[in-house]
């Protein structure tokens, strides 16, 4: 490899270190070309799996300010540069290593912090970003459902709830306001007859 080619390779690796969300160093000794291709397919969408030269990678890591792999770039090395979900990438590497023990997960880098092999496996046990977002959305929907119900209720019902809260606070203090609100809430179907009855009484008073 010419000096120019080496410089270009170092610059490319250094940029991958800088731009990736995470990186995982592995040893692939004994894996076939077909198995490496399979692993790349398993990581697709979350990481690119690159076979690297140790000396050039050491220089690139130094240029990028990465120290997580110091002293570990020995033997046939390949790095998973993660540009997607680090948890999914860790799962892909862990599952492939279980099925193909010749793949050795050595260490990693996440948000500038070094990860041991055990820490990468723990990362793989976490829930993915998509699952966490789905749970968050569900929790938010549950919290908002009461607010949506209140907005959809008749104004007369809302006014009664507010009045009950105000009276409860005046008599017993703020701590008792929440139970009063729950006790005063009615469904829209129950609130409508009460509102109509109030309107009838008011109308009758005017006629008299």
What can you tell me about this protein's structure?
There is one protein chain. Helix 4 (86-99) crosses helix 5 (117-124) and helix 7 (155-172) runs antiparallel to helix 8. The chain is built from nine helices and five strands. It is elongated, with a radius of gyration of 31 Å. The chain is an alpha+beta fold and 208 residues long. 21% of the residues are buried. The protein has a five-stranded antiparallel beta sheet with strand order 2-3-1-4-5.
Please give the structural blueprint.
Layout (H helix, E strand, L loop, with lengths): L2 H17 L2 E6 L5 H11 L3 E6 L1 H11 L12 E6 L3 H14 L4 E7 L2 E4 H8 L4 H24 L2 H18 L4 H8 L3 H20 L1
In short:
By secondary structure, the protein is of the alpha+beta class. Helix content is 63%, strand content 14%.
Helix content: 55-70%
Shape: elongated
N-to-C series of helices and strands:
HEHEHEHEEHHHHH
- Strand content range: 5-15%
Low-pLDDT stretches are 176-208
How would you sum up the major sheet? Answer: 5 strands, antiparallel
Q: Based on DSSP secondary structure assignment, what is the total number of beta strands?
A: 5
Structural classification: alpha+beta
Q: So how many helices?
A: 9
List the main descriptive attributes of the protein structure presented here.
five-stranded antiparallel beta sheet, alpha+beta
């Amino acid at each position: 490899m010419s000096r120019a080619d080496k410089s270009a390779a170092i610059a490319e690796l250094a940029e991958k270190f800088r731009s990736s969300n995470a990186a995982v160093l592995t040893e692939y000794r004994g894996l076939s070309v077909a198995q490496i291709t399979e692993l790349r397919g398993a990581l697709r969408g979350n990481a690119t799996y690159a076979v690297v030269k140790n000396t050039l990678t050491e220089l690139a890591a130094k240029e990028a300010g990465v120290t997580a792999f110091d002293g570990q770039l020995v033997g046939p090395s390949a790095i998973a540069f993660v540009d997607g979900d680090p948890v999914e990438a860790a799962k892909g590497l862990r599952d492939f290593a279980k099925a193909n023990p010749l793949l050795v997960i050595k260490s990693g880098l996440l948000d500038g912090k070094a990860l041991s092999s055990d820490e990468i496996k723990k990362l793989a046990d976490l829930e993915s970003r998509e699952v966490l977002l789905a749970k968050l959305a569900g929790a938010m929907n549950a919290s908002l459902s009461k607010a949506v119900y209140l907005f959809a209720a008749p104004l007369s019902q809302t006014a009664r709830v507010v009045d009950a809260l105000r009276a409860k606070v005046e008599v017993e203090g703020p701590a008792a306001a929440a139970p009063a609100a729950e006790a005063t809430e009615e469904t829209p179907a129950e609130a409508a007859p009460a509102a109509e009855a109030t309107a009838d009484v008011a109308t009758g008073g005017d006629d008299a």
